[in-house]
Amino acid sequence: KGRAWPESSGTAQTSRPRTAAAAMGSPLGGWPSHNPQNFSQLVPADPSAQPTNVTPTTYIAAHRTDPPVTPGTAVITTEPRNILLRHFYQNSENKARPKRAAPESAALRNGKQARSPADGGSQSSTRS
Amino acid sequence: RTSTPAEKSNNPHRPTPTPTLPGACDASAPPAATGGAVMVGFFRSGNLASRVFDRQFLSPRPGATVNTVRQFYENLVPSYTIYDIDCPDYSFRKFTDDGKYLVAFSRNHQDLIVYRPIWLTFSCHEECDSHDLPANAERFDSFFKQLYSISLASSNEYICKDFFLYMECHQYGLFATSTAQSNDSSATDGAIHGVPSIEKITFYLVRLEDGAILDEKAFCNDFINLAHSIGAYLYEDLVCIVSLRYQTIHVLQIRDSGSLVEVRRIGAFCREDDELFLYSHGQAAQGNSFLPGIKQRLLSYIFRKTWNEEPDQALRVQHLKKKFYFHFQDYVDLIIWKVQFLDRRHLFIKFGSVDGGVTRSTDQNLAFFAVYNMETTDIVSLYQNSSEELYSLFEHYYDHFHANPQNSSHEKFISSHSNSVHALDQLCTIKNKASSSSQFVKKMMASLPYTCQSQSPSPYFDLSIFRYDEKLISAIDRHRHCTEHPIKFISVRQPNVVKFKIKPGSDSGGSDSRAKRISSFLFHPFFPLALSIQQTYMQPTVVNVHFRR
Known about the structure:
Shape of chain B: globular
GO molecular function, one term (chain B): ubiquitin protein ligase binding
Pfam families (chain B): Det1
Oligomer: heterodimer
Helix content of chain A: 10-25%
Number of helices of chain B: 9
Strand content of chain A: under 5%
Helix content of chain B: 10-25%
Distance between the termini of chain B: 11 Å
Number of strands of chain B: 26
InterPro entries (chain B): De-etiolated_protein_1_Det1
Radius of gyration of chain B: 26 Å
Organism (chain B): Aegilops tauschii subsp. strangulata (Goatgrass)
Protein name (chain B): Light-mediated development protein DET1
Number of strands of chain A: 0
Structural class of chain A: mainly alpha
């Protein structure tokens, strides 16, 4: 399941908390911080600034960042086939998959590959 | 005075600044001017001495060392010509791709003569004029040392002058001899109609170092397209030979010891034990009721693809009738024309109709290209010769059609439209001018499968360094009609500057223009040395040597 995400108790309540950096009038204001306790000891340089309970926005990754559980699933290897062969295999795999109720135009488009020799090159290409 | 360049780029014995360049010392040509060929502007000046100094402290970009060093060939060009050099009357075939041998055949097509290209070496007793070569230096054996002459063909056989494949790692050469062609094209036990028959074709494996014939393999009453080595393809240590008459692909392995061993035979049967299986079930005794194995693979592939095209079961049978059964006989009548290796397991096979099989003109006839996996005996994919999809692969990955890991590094740098911006430009120009897209695609597809070792790896054909008229001369070794004027090689970097000229024919140039003249050019893979050979009907052959003095 993975580790527990750090609690960000502050963000739920406050609508738009000002970060400590913004409170300091820094040009780098607005950057979210992972640990809400960061910058909590800071004293604003500007004494007139309001000593609010600034809670920096906490960065939460939108995807899982833990390493794959099963070892060996992220192994990088060299593809033994050269790129030309890879394309040949890929093209044939794309065509070999039986079409599922494909629209008529798609069937026509892919049907060009199996055109018989008797048809010749006289038909214009409908392929995009 | 002797000069022996040990390595192609280490030749500053007299670092002469090229005198004809007006802008020789202009600062680095802006890379943008060359349209993306950034490597062309690597050296800051065109002057040879200053390039050598640049090389001391500038290093090329990663992976571009060879391309950068090749720019020295702009300065070291075969600009000096010895016309009509006095040489033995042999027909010179080719320099091997590692530059170690020059292969020639005797006029009677029975002997093989191998030379070692040496640099211009001579000695003279009297005072040598530094501007002109002494007369006794201008001889063929100042440049080439004959190693041996062996007899390959016996009485009624002739060496096929066009056929030569070189296996670089062991310095083995593959040659072919044949008896006269008979026009008996009747179908006899397994042979197909319409293909002539040759009584005996023999392939010889020769160790070029000393001329020892290591092994031979004969094909009797068969037909193999030997012209320009089309009927065979060498990949690493495997050779595939296409028997057109029996529609079989023979895959031979060249062992290290020099023996030729047949490892696979694809045609009637695909797997090694197919024949055994059929015999054990008593099927083969009933005669040729089965289609050949490779044909069955082809038909089943087309069947499955046609089947998969139609998702609706009710319409499927109709679709099959229209696309497959209606043209069944046409598919059955296809024959193998030409084969190449894509890697050790995969073959790229061209199928076509019988009429176009023997000649090389493939434009009019329809053809199919199949990728065949020898181990699984499956056909991986099949394309018609007007296929846009295949053309797209041809445009982007052309180099992979002739990739061969065991080749010398020179072959990896042969210019093609997949690795050279200039060649791609030329291709796109032709494509845009073509009246019919499918005709253009078919014309391009006519160059597939690739013909093994058909291109010279010489840097003088590198399109990022030189421009030249490809109708008059190119990396592909074909005979061409002779031209009156010298062939110019123009620098890409400085488009107005002609770096050197190749003039075939005699110095006077004025010969009987009514006579048909054919020239061929042999370039050494890395020395600034080339031979131009001009043959005129009923006249002696003229050989010129072009080299850098």
